[in-house]
């Protein structure tokens, strides 16, 4: 028998593999029992058709199979249909059009709402009936992981939607300047050689710097430690949120702060941000009306909107970081997908280049000229349709005490978590002909005329058929900035570089984790200066 080099806590006898097995079984039993109790204490959803296995416990067996076979099934090449979770959702979408069905999650049911009528009702429901915030705050455990002030008052969403969007035209030269500087720095070419770089890390640098140019300005947006912590923060919040969610509610106040990255990240971020924010408060106090040269960036916009306890140096540091959380990882994943798509479908290159060159020749690099780049816009839309960075959209929790009743008469009880199956909508042949073919110009072809251009098919226009940014009351307020940033980066890339996979290999497989669809973060791509 194998004897481990570990000793039982009382002293003499070594711990054997059998002991460890017993311990592991005990731990698994406790965890299983907890998950089961949690699931059974949720709302009664027996009346909703189930995909997966029929009964709750059987369904959980399905979930465990999904988890344990994760290695083979989570990394797939040709779409999420091959993982159990996605297979259930896709089967449900085909079997229950314009209806409601459920699939098992790890510790609760995921209710799926399909069809335009019911989805519209979700998108437009008031926060007091279907809550976006309770759904997202429970998923992220925002209070513990990012701060209670953020959970209590998400005023930053309004700031992003109004002040940031209003300033995109004025600040475009800065965005463009940062894109050029970041590309030049992360792709240091010598001659005409191909340069091999890790795709995700490289795109992350570019996105992080460009976003932060607008959020905190120069020189902080270029600080390697600050950009690194922005990215780590996003991942840490998501992981800690999941761990905290697994704790029984009564344990959370004591254990959650130990799992949360909040204090650690704030300490690190404060070194960079506190002096910047504090200086602005000091100038405001000293100069009053005469403080006219305030920087035009996120910090200032937040200072203008914040009130009471939200208007302190510490509160603003926390808030700036949280906006970065919403912005940077989402845009990095999206841009990495785009780069993979450019390399995987290189026949788009020539037309994209011609479009950018022709528009820039006439109008230069401005926000308005970006709006004239229909093919660039379309390529971004198609990449988000084809992969997206998630497979579900419109996440909500029923918070109306008597439940939420749909127009088809179905009432979802208080406490139900629901979504719409975005991947299935985006791959529905009745909505998108030939949906499993990547056509980078799918959306530009749909825009009616070159002169007028239908707003309906622009990447920023959300609809029940196009959900990467959600839809309705809580549609992403940062999508206007994200579109400007991503389109400007894509346009810069196509006119200045060639890109391909190492050894001309295939597009690296996406990584499907729960409902996320992540681009492979370890793959490498090759760039070279465009050969004219
Ligand atoms: C490609 C990049 C992005 C994607 C795919 C994305 C996606 C989303 C989605 C799906 C939602 C939820 C919508 C719903 O459920 O109806 C959302 C919300 C949000 N996003 Fe984005 N987002 C992106 C970039 C950004 C950026 C750059 C910012 C900030 C500058 C931002 C700030 C926010 C905020 C603050 C919310 C919460 C909205 C609310 O409180 O009502 N996002 N985003």
Structure description:
The protein is an alpha+beta fold and 532 residues long. It has one domain (115-529): Cytochrome P450 (Cytochrome p450). The chain is built from 22 helices and 15 strands. It has helices at 17-40, 56-68, 70-74, 84-95, 116-124, 132-140, 142-145, 148-152, 156-166, 168-186, 199-215, 224-245, 252-259, 262-287, 298-305, 313-344, 349-363, 367-371, 374-386, 422-426, 442-446, 479-496, and strands at residues 3-7, 14-16, 75-76, 100-104, 109-113, 130-131, 195-198, 393-398, 404-405, 411-412, 417-420, 497-501, 510-513, 516-518, 524-529. A five-stranded mixed sheet has the order 4-5-11-8-6. A three-stranded antiparallel sheet has the order 3-13-14. A hairpin with a 5-residue loop joins strand 9 and strand 10 (411-412). Helix 11 packs across helix 12 and helix 11 (199-215) packs across helix 16 (313-344). It is globular and about 65 Å long. Residues 1-13, 54-59 and 64-81 have low confidence and may be disordered. It binds protoporphyrin IX containing FE. The site of protoporphyrin IX containing FE has 26 residues, from helix 9, helix 16, strand 8 and helix 22. Belongs to the cytochrome P450 family. Heme binds at residue 476. One of its GO terms (molecular function) is monooxygenase activity. This is Cytochrome P450.
Outline:
The chain is of the alpha+beta class.
């Amino acid at each position: 028998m194998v004897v481990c080099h570990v000793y039982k806590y009382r002293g003499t006898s070594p711990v054997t593999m059998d002991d460890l097995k017993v311990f592991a079984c005990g731990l698994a039993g406790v965890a299983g029992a907890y998950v089961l109790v949690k699931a059974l204490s949720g709302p009664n959803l027996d009346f909703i058709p189930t995909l997966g296995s029929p009964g709750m416990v059987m369904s959980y067996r399905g979930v465990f199979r999904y988890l344990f076979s994760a290695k083979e099934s989570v990394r797939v090449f040709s779409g999420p249909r091959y993982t159990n979770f996605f297979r259930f959702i896709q089967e449900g979408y085909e079997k229950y059009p314009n209806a409601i069905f459920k699939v098992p999650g790890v510790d609760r049911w995921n209710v799926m709402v399909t069809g335009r009528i019911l989805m519209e009702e979700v998108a437009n429901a008031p926060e007091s009936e279907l809550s976006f915030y309770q759904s997202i705050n429970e998923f992220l455990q925002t209070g513990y992981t990012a701060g209670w002030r953020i959970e209590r008052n998400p005023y930053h969403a309004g700031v992003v939607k109004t002040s940031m969007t209003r300033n995109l035209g004025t600040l475009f030269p800065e965005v463009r300047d940062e894109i050029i500087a970041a590309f030049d720095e992360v792709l240091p070419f010598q001659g005409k050689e191909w340069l091999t770089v890790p795709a995700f890390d490289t795109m992350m640098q570019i996105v992080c710097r460009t976003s932060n140019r607008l959020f905190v300005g120069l020189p902080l947006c270029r600080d390697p430690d600050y950009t690194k912590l922005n990215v780590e923060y996003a991942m840490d919040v998501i992981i800690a949120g999941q761990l905290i969610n697994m704790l029984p509610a009564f344990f959370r106040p004591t254990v959650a702060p130990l799992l949360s990255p909040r204090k650690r990240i704030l300490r690190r971020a404060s070194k960079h941000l506190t002096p910047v924010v504090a200086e602005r408060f000091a100038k405001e106090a000293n100069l009053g009306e005469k403080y006219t040269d305030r920087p035009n960036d996120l910090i200032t916009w937040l200072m203008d909107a914040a009130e009471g306890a939200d208007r302190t140096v510490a509160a603003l540091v926390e808030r700036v970081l949280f906006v970065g959380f919403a912005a940077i990882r989402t845009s990095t994943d999206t841009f990495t997908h785009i780069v993979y798509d450019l390399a995987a479908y290189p026949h788009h290159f020539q037309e994209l280049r011609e479009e950018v060159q022709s528009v820039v020749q006439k109008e230069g690099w401005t926000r308005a000229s970006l709006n004239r780049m229909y093919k660039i816009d379309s390529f971004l839309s198609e990449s988000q349709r084809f992969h997206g960075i998630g497979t579900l959209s419109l996440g909500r929790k029923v918070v109306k005490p008597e439940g939420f009743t749909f127009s088809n008469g179905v009432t979802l009880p208080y406490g139900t978590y629901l979504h719409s199956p975005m991947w299935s909508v985006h791959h529905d042949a009745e909505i998108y002909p030939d949906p499993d073919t990547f056509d980078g110009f799918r959306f530009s072809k749909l825009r009616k005329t070159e002169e007028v251009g239908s707003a309906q098919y622009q990447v920023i226009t959300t609809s029940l058929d196009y959900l990467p940014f959600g839809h309705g009351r809580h549609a992403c307020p940062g999508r206007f900035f994200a579109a400007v940033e991503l389109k400007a980066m894509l346009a810069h890339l196509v006119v200045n570089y060639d890109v391909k996979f190492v050894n001309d290999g295939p597009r690296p497989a996406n990584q499907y984790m729960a409902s996320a669809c992540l681009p492979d973060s370890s793959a490498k791509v090759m760039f070279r200066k465009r050969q004219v």
